[in-house]
Amino acid sequence: MYNVKSLILGLVATSGMLMGCSGDKSPDRPATTPTTGVVTYNGDPVEGATVTFKPGADGKAAFGKTDGEGKFALTTFEGGDGAIPGSYTVAVTKMEVMESNAVSMDDPNYDPTIEEPEPKSLLPAKYADAANSGLTATVGTEPGDVKLELAD
Q1: Long-range contacts: 114-120, Cβ < 8 Å, 24+?
Q2: What are 58-112's pLDDT values in tens digits?
Q3: Which residues contact 61 (CB under 8 A, 6 or more apart)?
């Protein structure tokens, strides 16, 4: 069973992939380098985490999602295209998946005063902020692999 948030995220990701497949590559778009990596927490692979490579002021961020082995591939413009060469600060987040109990506004049991609980982070909070995570990476012009080791 899908929760509403998962369904929306899936639709957004699908529409983004479809737009990326349109073949409209701007000649002004910077080159990217295929970049992969692995995330571990206290030595164990982290599944389902979002990895964000945040560049300096004039760059474009790259993102990836970890699999069951903690592995990810970065995307900047199109799925798996990598990251623009440069230096990055890195954030890693993994939130608890929660089922929504929300009912439709058309439902006679609808109560606008009921608030859904906030999902909780499954990693230490410092890793969610690239500026304070202590994680950095440099992407060169050759394909690379990044190891992100998180600990308490």
Answers
A1: 119/95, 120/95, 120/96
A2: 789 999 999 999 999 999 999 999 999 999 999 999 999 877 777 788 888 888 8
A3: 52, 53, 54, 55, 76
Query: Contact 68/29 with Cβ under 8 angstroms?
Result: no
Q: What is the pTM of this model?
A: 0.74
Of residues 124 and 56, more confidence is placed in 124
The mean pLDDT value for 34-48 works out to 98
